[in-house]
Amino acid sequence: MSDYAPSANVPSRFTWWGGSEPLKASYGKLMMWFFLLSDTFTFSALLVTYGMIRFSQPAFPGAHDDFYFATTHWPIPDKVFEAVPFLHGVSLPLVFVGIMTFILIFSSVTMVLAVEAGHRKDKAAVEKWMLWTILGGFTFLGSQAWEWTHFIHGPELSVAAKDLITGLPIEGANLVRNPYGPPAFADLFFFITGFHGTHVFSGVILNVLIFFNASMGVYQRRGHYEMVEKVGLYWHFVDLVWVFVFTFFYMV
Amino acid sequence: MSHSHSSNHETVEGVIAPPQTKVIWRTFIILLIATCVEFAIAFGLPPEMKYTRISIFVVLTIFKAFYIVGEFMHLKHEVKSLIWMIIVPTGFIVWLLIALVYEGGHHPREIF
Prior knowledge:
Low-confidence stretches of chain B: 1-12
Oligomer: heterodimer
Number of helices of chain A: 7
Low-confidence stretches of chain A: 1-10
Number of strands of chain A: 0
Order of helices and strands of chain B: HHHH
Helix content of chain A: 55-70%
Largest sheet of chain A: none
Order of helices and strands of chain A: HHHHHHH
Shape of chain B: flat
């Protein structure tokens, strides 16, 4: 049985049971990659659902400028998402979503800087960049909360889609009906951005844990900052998913 | 316990290497420019050129994904077999995505 024990001259911490390191990656990093791959399946399923439902619904037949909200055709995203906090009544299509994208990409950069600082065992720099990453994550979540509130609140009643039966404008969005378009539009908005937002939230919690451990000197004592790297992989994945959501939900 | 304490001391007293962040910032600039180009196209191109616009978006998104996964997630610098283990299943998912969205677009309307 001693064949299965790691050989003495290989540092056991980075070695899988058996004495070698498959794919020259640690167990934790490899498993994080596989988890992210499985998460890709989940998000792809949502994306397929979006594509399928969207193409099964009629598009707006007229010109882009003549667009109006109605439950009988799919809304044009930049007519729905055109508000920015503190600028009430100003039409700035997709600007706020652009800012949110920028925030998330930037927090990915600070995460990578934390990982880089971890390689150099620079405890102070890891703490600094982890804090920036956490701040970016919370800013994104706050922006999304605002976006959801605005979406649920709905547009001015004069431009809202009308109920097919009563003929009255629909006030506010929920899972059953919404003032922008077919019910599936709001359902998909809530599901896709909500599922992604839950991922961001989990990521922020993980980042807080890593920041706490780093400042307590846990990784300094352990001799390596690999945990920063593993959580970093997750955080970049969340950023990556948003890049896709941004393109396929908001832009196309 | 005492052993780990002394090794801790060594790293604290040892010189910390200067940061190597040039590649990180370069990647950030590239991602930023790609997002700005997407914005410019979303509002620059006339709405009639719908399919040109969508194709440019898809290409730019894959371009951005390449930089995020390759540089930020460090996949570019891993072992070849690990790279393929990630890329091949992803390729199959993309195939499935295209197939299902295509089928979805040709679905009889009456079902919904």
